[in-house]
């Protein structure tokens, strides 16, 4: 510290001060840097990693097909899961104990059993229900009837398993979003004479979206990778396809790396998209607290 | 003219074991302005919220413009109104809240248009014109494109008043409309309310602004412990309060 005595002047120059030494941080950075370089070296010179094979299979037609199935499964199961989640969340907040109970049972069961088990179950649903039909319930006459074995392909089983499981998680996310909306918003909308449905659609859900979107983005990114579980029922997505190829040519590690590269590409693209979607739903919500904004008001040009 | 705009008869309301309204009866004539005052927890806000059925009542009756609020009387039994009929009743009753409750994801203009467009199905262009007129009336035509977060508290409350007026209500309820405002912003809201009263709107105002009550109110109602302790013309009751509790209350707020 520098003590002054008496009246002094300060130089009118921008401050350009020397930072104190941080030896601990420098040592840690040096260590991390060395570890990275060493890791990269061992990977590059390792002859067991067949980089030529990896490059050759990166754009392979079968891999591309698997990639496409992975994208389809992710988008469809997230869309259906979100729809199921909204329905279940609205049911959980309903006044009817039967609706609340049904929704609670749904989330309880599908969050309480492993997704892997659910996928295998849906794939083998024909063992429990050999036929599906539309008609009179309780063994009445049927209008149309399908064999479960024709209806349940690996793709539909995967879609059912992923979407219904996702719906249970989305229900919790949507419910938290709806509950985050100030109850005064509902009252203001009701006092204008809006119906329950209008209050939900026009006032509550748009505001709940701000809270719902970030975890939904995370769920989407997680779902891109979760689709690989479908390989247990041979779902023809990215991992299944990679496995089929390496069972033929024994390039196990190379094909796992090919699949991993594509998973990373997908999740990176999804993360960037998530960033822009989140910005879109920030509309009307500004980072500045009221007190700061009040002080800034003289600079507000008030254009309308 | 037929009966009063608002008739409240023997209204009781409990929250669990606590009885917050213990037999309230009150009339508001058409075009009348009644100011409701009282200590916090006295039930004055609850009374207001019962009038547009944000709260249900446990006994008594409330009529607005001759319509029984919340129920239909068929034979000798009361039937709860269907949700659609309740929405119909609320359209005619505007409400302004202490904390504004503007829709944060919509601009000032969109906030004012929301009711007519969504509830009454008014064409957007017509609703927009009317909304701009109303924003002009509350002195905020130049803030139409702003989001609530970009407006001061006083401006937000004036937009909230315009939003209620857009539904062409027969009655306006004000629930402590200036209590959440910085002192220098209170007057701009009271000015709008004064103009509204002068235009002949029937108003029920829960407030701590005794100046406003004296100047604009036709009737001042003091509620304490869930009952009306004293009421009368504001100038008279404020000049010569009869009850000890009212005198004590005035001593604290004036």
Automatic annotation (TrEMBL), chain B:
InterPro entries: AAA+_ATPase (IPR003593), ABC_ATPase_HisP-typ (IPR030679), ABC_transporter-like_ATP-bd (IPR003439), ABC_transporter-like_CS (IPR017871), MetN_ABC_transporter-like (IPR050086), P-loop_NTPase (IPR027417). It comes from the Bacteria. The keyword Nucleotide-binding applies. GO terms for molecular function: ATP binding. Keywords: ATP-binding, Nucleotide-binding, Transport. It comes from Streptosporangium fragile. Residues 6-250 form the ABC transporter domain. Belongs to the ABC transporter superfamily. This is Amino acid ABC transporter ATP-binding protein. SMART domains: AAA.
